[in-house]
């Protein structure tokens, strides 16, 4: 099943983060997402104005509440940076990749 067709499932404390091979397999299913220096999944979306960037933040916020998986968001004029990792396990889980795929679906041309 594709990532965008899946839903986030709560992790339990003590669940191990994904290993490098798992991360490599899952990131290959995403478009334009990268790992930052802390090993967090990140992407910056660019827009021609503040209004469209803010609208994406609102849509991601609604998704976060629905999926009970909450990213770090940075909003500035014409761009939104999304940073994902699973705080409970202090690393990446499949939920991070599922959420990333859903974020990509929220971007309207």
Key features?
109 residues, alpha+beta, 4 strands
Q: Can you offer a commentary on this structure?
A:
A hairpin with a 2-residue loop joins β3 and β4. The protein is an alpha+beta fold and 109 residues long. α2 packs across α3. Helices cover 36% and strands 17% of the residues. The protein has a 4-stranded antiparallel sheet with strand order 1-2-4-3, with helices on one face.
Helices and strands in order:
Elements lengths: L19 H8 L6 E2 L5 E6 L3 H18 L4 E5 L2 E6 L9 H13 L3
Antiparallel strand pairs: 1-2, 2-4, 3-4
Helix pairs in contact: 2-3
Summarize the structure.
It contains 3 helices and 4 strands; from the N terminus they run H-E-E-H-E-E-H. By secondary structure, it is of the alpha+beta class.
Largest sheet: 4 strands, antiparallel
Low-confidence region ranges: none
Q: SSE order, as H and E?
A: HEEHEEH
The overall pLDDT average reads: 91
Q: Going across the major beta sheet, what is the strand order?
A: 1-2-4-3
Number of strands: 4
- Helix/strand-derived category reads alpha+beta
Gyration radius over CA: 13 Å
Shape: globular
Number of helical segments with 4 or more residues: 3
For the termini, the CA-CA separation is 25 Å
- State the share of residues found in helices, binned by percent: 25-40%
Give the DSSP E fraction (strand runs of 2 or more residues).
Answer: 15-25%
């Amino acid at each position: 099943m594709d990532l965008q067709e899946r839903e986030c499932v709560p992790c339990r404390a003590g669940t191990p983060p994904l290993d490098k091979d798992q991360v490599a397999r899952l990131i290959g299913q995403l478009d334009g997402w990268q790992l930052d220096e802390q090993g967090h999944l990140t992407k910056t979306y660019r827009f021609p104005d503040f209004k469209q960037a803010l609208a994406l933040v609102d849509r991601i916020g609604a998704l976060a509440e629905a999926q009970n998986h909450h990213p770090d968001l940075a909003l500035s004029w014409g761009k939104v940076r999304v940073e994902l990792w699973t705080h409970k396990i202090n690393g990446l889980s499949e939920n991070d990749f599922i959420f990333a795929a859903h974020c990509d679906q929220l971007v309207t041309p």
